[in-house]
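ok so i was messing around last nite and threw this chain in just to see what happens. nothing serious, just curious
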Amino acid sequence: MSSMTPAPVMPVRVNLRHQLFGAWCAPIFSVLTLAGWIGFAHFYDPAAASLSPAATADFFRDHRDGILLGGSLFILACGPLALWTAQLGLQLREIEGASPLMAIGQVLAGVSIVVIIVIDASLWMGAAYRPGADGQIVQALNDAAWLGFLIAWPILSMQMLCAAVVTLHDRRDERLVPRWVSWASVVGAIALVTAGGPAFTHSGPFAFDGLLGMYVPVVIWGAWLDGHAWYMRKAVRRRQLALDAAEEPGPDPREVAELVAFQPAPAPDG
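result:
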């Protein structure tokens, strides 16, 4: 029985188009998140952690339709995020080689983030679902969603560090990302520790509605996603251009032979 790996049946050009789409999935996720979670759901200015149960319930009742729509878009965005995570894993695998521990670690962390988003978006939608729900229940759902979303920062840090470890060892002439991007990923992964602040405070910059507790970590995440996606698209485009160049037809040998055969003989001297 042959142990040889079966040859791929999908044309290379089609596969590269799939990979290019995978790289585009990060900005697709970002647009859906900005429109849904940040925009419609009004989470650019969320209910503060210091609000009373009644005031928290008022926020979710006042923004009920937007939160339900925005949460739905946030969950929808998880599909592209999962594809982008897989695409980054494939491109890291090309660098890491036969035992791609860090590439696999990046994929596992990215998939975990997808699950976290689905759960937390569902909790926010649950808080808005019944306008007459008790304020303490609404507040508990909101707290659980925010804490699950932000306290999970080590998973995102692991994803960023796995990618950085691999790309820092990229010795190819055309690197996947510049070295400064890899080092910025390391710094960003460490800076995400501020997202752990909401577990210990209800107000101030480290609360889940605070600058360091929520806004800075979300900006770091978005910059890392879309920054890497830009370089990932460039890498796939280079392969597409190389394929185009390799398939560019050269001169037909028969035409060359005919041109040589019909060259007029030089005129005799004198």
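not much to say yet. The first helix runs from residue 12 to 40.
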